[in-house]
Amino acid sequence: MPKNKFLVVILVFLVIILTRLYPLIKFGPSGLGYDTGFYRRYLELSGGFLKPPSYILGTDAFSARLVLDFLSWSKINIDLALFGSYLIFSFLLGLTIYLLASQIFQNKNAGLLALCLFALSPTQWLAYTFMLYKQFWAIWLLLLSFYLIERRSSFLILPLILALTGHRATALLSIPPLFFTAVLYIIKKKKIRIILTITTAIILAVWLNWPIMEMLWTTFQNGLPIQDSFKLKTGIFISPEEYLIKSSIFIALGFIGAGYLVKKKKFGVFLFFFFTALILVLAKSYFYQRIIIFLDLSLIILGGGGLWLIYNQIKSSKYARIILAAFFLLLSPVLFFTIKSYHPLINQEKLQEIIYLRSISNDNSYIITFTSDYAPWLYGWAGPNKKIISPGLFEDAWNYEQWVNFWSGDLTKQKEMLASYRAPLYIFNPGSDYSDDACFAKISGSAWKFNCY
Predict the structure, then answer these.
(1) Which helix (H) or strand (E) holds 275?
(2) Which helix or strand (DSSP H or E) is residue 448 part of?
(3) Rounded distance between C-alpha atoms, residue 149 and residue 182, angstroms
């Protein structure tokens, strides 16, 4: 291992920060994913602390909303607050990965190697670009809770409750490992405070997510395979097949680390968490593509231990450090090509057109887009009080059949349906041209004002 580990840690965190800044530097505020607009809109809303739930920030995201409420109250520039706090989550996640891997394997070298794997993980970089704000907030707190459980710390209660009230999928995924850990601790007669804390957390997670758990139970009662019931709810992320291609080395190292812990009978909350995520991904359960992010983080932490075990076999060689450095250099191209091939969902030119709509339309305006592709960007940048209409989203008053009629109808039919919305109504539909119809006034290349009611 390197002699000056502090410099290595600084270098690794520099890689984490620079790679995550890249989309914003190259593409501007439109550089991150679909959910960016939802969070930005929430920050713009007035109301101080404890704002009412909004789109994708419902009652299941209470602690994440508290963070956003604080940022809104602080009056920091909205983009700086949103992107800056999101970047801090990655920094804290990396630090917690180091601490947790060091604790599980009782070796700081394993923690350092896990941190290096996290910095070079193409899957974690892609997950970051999806702007999964509340998920990254909750998973950091959950891993911190796991670290505190492993340390038998009495400070466990606060981060665990914040994690379970920050993101629904994280809370649901935490229930099995917390349950098995509580049972294990009862058998081994561990600290009663830890057992009570974990039991309270399980009850809280079940209570908060009872409606979705009831839906799962109904599915089982009806004899329907879960994958059939939720075949359209896989979660938007890379497929298991793509994950295998991108992260095969991480997976191999992770299984080496997991095998070591099983062999040594070092069962604990984190190992239970890994098996839970693995089973759910292999079974293609509800939201399984998003669970790949949790599985990858588990494999990174276990992979730090796996790589440490391999290094121990060659550390007597004078070339051991060179081999280790060469290994990480060979991992780098996968991340490099993932970053290089990345393109945001919307370009900066389209985003500027949306921002222009903000300045020329009043606060009570309706803005309709005929595809959901542009909906969150309009929601986040067109103004906090604009009423956005998109297929199946926000102020949409049409059902699917009506949208089909609209898409397939001629211009006369479309104007008739558009007139059902109250004025003023603006249209954002890149590629459309209404210049020959007096009912439409051109605002920009992609935006028109509808005038026939």
Answers:
(1) helix 269-282
(2) strand 447-450
(3) 11
pLDDT band at 235 (very low <50, low <70, confident <90, very high): low
CA 40-135-370 angle, to 5 degrees, is 50
Query: Is residue 123 packed enough to be buried (19+ CB in 10 Å), middle (13-18) or exposed (0-12)?
Result: buried
The answer for 60, left when phi > 0, alpha when psi is -120 to 50, beta otherwise, is: alpha
Domain 348-450 bears CATH identifier 3.40.1380: yes
The DSSP bridge pattern shows strands 393-394 and 425-428 to be unpaired
227-241, 246-260, 417-431, 439-453, range with the lowest pLDDT? 227-241
pTM here is 0.89
DSSP string, 381-410: HS-TT-EEEETTEET----HHHHHHHHHS-
Tokens 């020329």, located at residue: 360
Can you name the residues that pair with 393 across neighbouring β-strands?
390
- Mapped onto helix, strand or coil, the DSSP state of residue 61 is helix
Residue type, 348: Q
419, 453 Cβ separation under 8 angstroms:
yes
Q: Are 141 and 166 in contact (CB under 8 A)?
A: yes
Burial class (CB in 10 A: 0-12, 13-18, 19+), 7: exposed
Structure token pair of residue 136 = 């990254």
What whole-number distance in Å separates Cα of residue 341 and Cα of residue 217? 42
- DSSP alpha helix (H) spans, 106-209: 108-119, 122-129, 133-150, 157-164, 168-188, 192-208
The position carrying tokens 């394997």 is 105
Query: What is the distance between the alpha carbons of residues 117 and 332, in angstroms, rounded to a whole number?
Result: 10
What pLDDT, in 10s, does the model give residues 300-345? 999 999 999 998 888 777 777 888 888 888 889 999 999 999 999 8
Question: Whole-angstrom Cα distance, residue 376 to residue 182?
Answer: 41
* Structure tokens, 105: 């394997």
Residue 302 to residues 5, 21, 100, 296, 355, Cα–Cα distance (Å): 20, 27, 10, 10, 45
Q: How far is CA 115 from CA 16, 153, 301, 311, 430, in A?
A: 10, 23, 8, 16, 43
Residue extent(s) of CATH 3.40.1380 domains in the chain:
348-450
Query: Cis omega (within 30 of 0) on the bond before 424?
Result: yes
3-state secondary structure of 409: coil
Residue 55 Ramachandran class (φ > 0 left, ψ -120 to 50 alpha, else beta) = beta
Tokens read off for 87: 């970047």
